[in-house]
Amino acid sequence: MARANREVPAGVIQHLMWHGIREPGLLLDEKDFRYFLAQMTKLSRCFNITLYAYCLLHTHVHMLAEPADDKLPVFMQRLGHSYATRFNWRYSTRGHVFSERYLPIAVTNDDYLITVSRYIHLNPREAGIVTRPEDYAWSSCRDYLGFRSKALIDTDSVLDHFRSGSQSRNHAIRAYREYLDEHVEGNGLPPIRRAGGVWVYDADALSPVDTGQVDESSKTAGNVAIDLVIHMVDKKWLLLPPSVTHRPGFSLDQRNAALWLARRLTGLTWAELSDRFRTHEVTARIACKRFEKSLAEHARLRELLFDLEQDILNASETA
Predict the structure, then answer these.
(1) What is the CATH number of the domain that holds 263?
(2) 3-state secondary structure 211-229
(3) What is the reported pTM?
(4) How far apart are CA 134 and CA 26, in angstroms?
(5) Helix (H), strand (E) at residue 54
(6) CA 231 to CA 225: how far, in whole Å?
(7) CA-based angle 105:109:115, to the nearest 5?
């Protein structure tokens, strides 16, 4: 009896792990690696799967992939069948090639996306195959660090968190390179848990990610007390008209407004702000970036927020 396809939500990035069953391995020579990589790339396009990272090893493979719809199980089935058929033909064997069904783990926020990409790219170094992750030919690390002229995957979704404003892609590459070189305790991944029928990384166990990125365009010099910023936002928020804070397809988050203003006015670091707002550093950075985008798109909102900023500065001077 055929097994039902795994439940994999559309639009949710998945960390996919797949192990081989045979000795001496799953991918035995360069031809095997090339074939698997070519099939993975071709089928991902066919089934509208966005690939963010991958690593092919002799015994197993890692992929970081996002399905646009419900076709991820079909993509994995086709990829596995294609490779297993060729493997058995080439090596005159029969039966299963993969030890078990692939394991999908949901990557539910940008912290995880960045952390899992590093874990995948460090696999060859941790296995003792290479001393530098970019020296390994069968992972996407070379795409991230600019060694390939035409990347096979989407690298911008991760690298964009390592730059801001007018900073170049090369700046992001250097920052990501430094991130790869940071010391990591264990494998750097949080434990997984079952939630709503799918496996996810445990949100409470992941340490903040420091991208080394500071958006100077969204920060002004100042030493306003963080408590004053939060108090003034709480006090003024109810006075904002609903036409500004809520509209079709747009909802203004009060906490993100306070975070954005605190970043501009207090002089606190991202680490200090994330601790005060009880969030991760990358989450705080992303929230500010998205809030700035909202300000850029809505003139009335921008006017009201800068008026609020001036009220906070005036209150700080008279405190």
Answers:
(1) 1.10.1750.10
(2) CCCCCHHHCCCCCCCHHHH
(3) 0.64
(4) 22
(5) strand 49-56
(6) 10
(7) 70
Quote the number of domains for the chain.
Answer: 2
Of 163, 151, 164, 160, nearest to 217 (Cα)? 164
- Which structural domain, as residue segments, surrounds residue 168? 13-205
> What CATH number does the domain containing 197 carry?
3.30.70.1290
Phi-psi domain of 278 (left: phi exceeds 0; alpha: psi -120 through 50; beta: other) = left
**Alpha-carbon distance values, 263 to 72, 210, 212 (Å):** 40, 16, 15
The answer to whether position 1 is within a domain reads no
**CA-to-CA distance for 64 and 157, rounded, in angstroms?**
12
DSSP state of 20: B
Written as six digits, the tokens of 301 are 């909102």
Here the tokens at position 124 are: 């060859």
Q: Residues 229-264: pLDDT tens digits?
A: 888 888 877 665 554 444 333 345 677 788 888 888
